[in-house]
Design brief:
Chain lengths: ~220, ~475
């Protein structure tokens, strides 16, 4: 899952970026509104965490421009402005959620997971396919109750494939979802991660297979 | 109770007393007399068979139309005139003289004055036919005899018979009988006095009622204000008491004070909101940094996080010190913190504090050229100077030199800190001290929160300084007027 963080406090941005990457998110960070708008316009992000008081271009302008351009990314406003008028204006302008500073890290994480579920029309807190289940909050995968040990990238790929269960995810989509701008993945990186994930799941009895759609990408289906 | 209320009550009481004991009795008395006079006149006119009009003139005479002719009353005399003005009949004690001559009978009214003292005596006359201007003694004698008989016969009655004459002609008898029956004047005045006495009793009661009601309504209004004041302590600051009519000036003053208090509270709210805003982001930084470090379990990352938290804590310490300075500055009349301060030394210490930031951007902050002693709160001065120096160090273009000057005159001491500010537009100078207003500077990597100069101006205002930004030819000058030690 790829997150764009537009926050002008360098210290807060750094801490959030570190934390989100630990959670398996691919994170792009912008310290002002101009860079943030440019990154957001790329359309590669599932969720945008947006501060309102930004240099150069303010957060509300970014949000309005994105929505005017047809962006479907989910936007979570993260700001010190807590007046009801500000909250209403932010949500009316197209934000999907609104958090005020100071905030608790677990709450931000939970809200991000909720936005991810909404992005993929998934109402369940646990992602499931057959006997395989993944808890996006704890980042723990289980098959028939047994924990399957996965790396952060493997978990990210599995999460993305489970979100899009029954669909074929293209190579570039998976790559965009799990790598941010600071990472420079090799062209075979996704293939390598999927191979490792497939092996780990095959070792766990009852897990659905990660299928290869030749020349396109990968998919996980609900077992018949 | 306000003096104006006592004055109003006293004035009202005097007015009511004057009305009760002087004006109203006179009015009643006059009204009764006028009624008697009017009744008398109506009787005359009714008996004169032909009343058409009554006119009253300011000089006190009355004119009556009687069958196309006029009866005029001049003080105590009456006359009947033709429409053209000729006198055709007269009576009154001013025409006593003709009595006994030409058949005139000395009818008179004893002072039918319009303003009271109506003393109408009964008079009777019989019709007389006389040749005007020609007095026939025989004829007169006959008439005198007749008159005497009639007069005696009707003594005690109140009739008047008029003779009518016209120049060069004897007119037929005009049967004008003024029949008036009146009680003796003294009896009538006694009746008037009784009525006045009754009126006095009634008016006395009305006075008591008025005074009592005034006291009651004043007490009720004061009680209402008292309750409103008690409620005000519990209610919202924008609450306004309903002004009782009697105490409107008092409540207007109270409302004005409440408005001023509301404005002051709003300013406090703005400052607190600004401070809270200033603290929100650092608190969020500390929370996220520590929680992420705890989640990560990496000791190196944890140590780095601790360093970040320390930096944030130092930033918050500075903010809290500013808040304390603002709070202390709001306590009025406390002169204990005022002391002589060397402005040059204070500026040097502040410049040393921002030297690293200035050096990173190659901004030069020179010391002030001379020693200048001012009298002020040193903490407030430090906050103001630090804000100005930090703004210059962080927002002036890289490589620029900040100019510091001090001007001393009779009004005190004025500090001018000037630096290039090409990013500011003419309209921005007035907004620099607005809370949360900030101008983003592309070449500056420090964006701030837009509270610095606002808080500095607040501190300056409470410390007795005047802080004014001015923009001219692309250069920003912060003027700070400070009382000098001499003043």
């Amino acid at each position: 899952m790829r997150v764009l963080l537009i926050e002008d406090s360098e210290r807060l941005s750094g801490a959030l970026t570190t934390g989100l990457r630990q959670e398996g998110f691919a994170v792009d960070a912008a310290l002002d509104g101009s860079v943030g708008l440019e990154l957001a316009a790329s359309g590669q992000h599932d969720v945008i965490i947006l501060d309102l008081g930004l240099p150069l271009v303010d957060g509300m302008s970014i949000l309005r421009r994105l929505r005017a351009a047809g962006s479907t990314a989910h936007v979570l406003i993260l700001t010190a402005r807590d007046a009801p008028g500000d909250i209403v204006a932010g949500l009316d302008a197209g934000a999907d959620d609104y958090m005020t500073k100071p905030f608790l890290w677990p709450e931000l994480r939970a809200r991000l997971n909720a936005l991810m579920r909404r992005r993929f029309n998934n109402k369940q807190a646990q992602l499931r396919a057959g006997d395989l289940e993944l808890d996006p909050s704890s980042r723990v995968a289980r098959v028939r109750g047994e924990v399957v040990s996965l790396s952060a990238k493997e978990t990210a790929v599995l999460e993305y494939l489970l979100h899009r269960k029954g669909e074929t995810a293209r190579h570039e989509e998976i790559e965009a979802a799990i790598y941010d701008g600071e990472s420079a993945p090799e062209s075979s990186a996704v293939t390598t991660i999927v191979c490792r994930l497939r092996k780990r799941l095959e070792n766990a009895d009852g897990a659905p297979p990660v299928r290869t759609v030749r020349g396109v990408g990968y998919r996980i289906d609900e077992p018949a | 109770m306000r003096p104006s209320i006592i004055f109003h009550l006293a004035t009202g009481f005097v007015l009511v007393a004057v009305a009760t004991f002087v004006v109203i009795p006179r009015v009643v008395h006059r009204s009764l007399n006028e009624n008697l006079l009017k009744e008398f006149e109506d009787s005359i006119l009714a008996m004169a068979r032909g009343v058409a009009r009554l006119a009253e003139y300011e000089d006190g005479h009355y004119e009556f139309d009687i069958a196309g002719e006029e009866v005029a009353a001049y003080g105590e005399s009456f006359a009947v005139r033709t429409a053209e003005g000729g006198v055709i009949a007269r009576w009154g004690h001013d025409i006593r003289a003709p009595a006994g001559r030409g058949g005139w009978t000395p009818f008179f009214f004893d002072a039918p004055s319009p303003d009271g003292s109506l003393r109408c005596v009964s008079v009777r006359a019989r019709p007389i036919m006389e040749h005007a201007g020609k007095h026939d003694d025989e004829h007169d004698e006959d008439h005198e005899d007749e008159h005497d008989e009639e007069h005696e016969a009707h003594q005690g009655e109140h009739d008047i018979a008029l003779a009518v004459e016209e120049d060069e002609a004897i007119l037929p008898h005009v049967d004008i009988v003024l029949g008036v029956r009146r009680a003796p004047v003294d009896a009538r005045m006694a009746a008037v006095a009784d009525v006045v006495d009754d009126s006095m009793l009634l008016l006395g009661f009305l006075v008591l009622l008025f005074v009592g009601s005034s006291v009651f309504f004043t007490w009720r209004a004061l009680r209402g204000v008292t309750r409103n004041l008690e409620t005000a302590g519990l209610g919202p600051i924008d609450w306004r008491p309903e002004p009782p009519r009697e105490l409107k000036p008092l409540t207007q003053a109270l409302n004005s004070a409440l408005i001023q208090a509301g404005d002051a509270v709003q300013r406090e709210r703005d400052v607190i909101a600004g401070m809270a805003h200033e603290l929100r982001t650092p608190v969020a930084e500390m929370l996220v940094t520590t929680e992420v470090a705890l989640d990560g379990g990496d000791e190196t990352a944890a140590r780095a996080a601790l360093a970040d938290v320390r930096a944030v804590a130092l930033q918050m310490k500075s903010t809290v010190e500013t808040m304390l300075t603002v709070a202390r500055g709001k306590a009025p009349g406390d002169a204990s913190r005022i002391e002589p301060v060397d402005l040059g030394q204070a500026w040097s210490e502040v410049v040393a504090g921002v030297a690293m930031q200035a050096a990173e951007r190659d901004v030069t902050l020179p010391p002030l050229p001379e020693e200048h002693i001012v009298r002020c709160d040193p903490a407030a001065l430090r906050v103001v100077l630090t804000t100005i120096a930090e703004n210059a160090a962080l927002h002036a273009p890289p490589g620029s030199v900040v100019d510091g000057r001090v001007i001393v005159d009779d009004e005190g001491l004025r500090l001018h800190i000037e630096n290039p500010a090409p990013h500011l537009e003419p309209g921005d100078a007035a907004r620099l001290t607005e809370p949360l207003w900030r101008k983003d500077v592309p070449e500056s990597d420090h964006h701030g929160l837009g509270l610095g100069l606002y808080l500095a101006s607040e501190v300056a205002g409470h410390a007795g300084f005047v802080l004014e930004p001015a923009l001219r030819d692309g250069r920003l000058t912060i003027h700070v007027a400070i009382p000098s030690a001499r003043s």
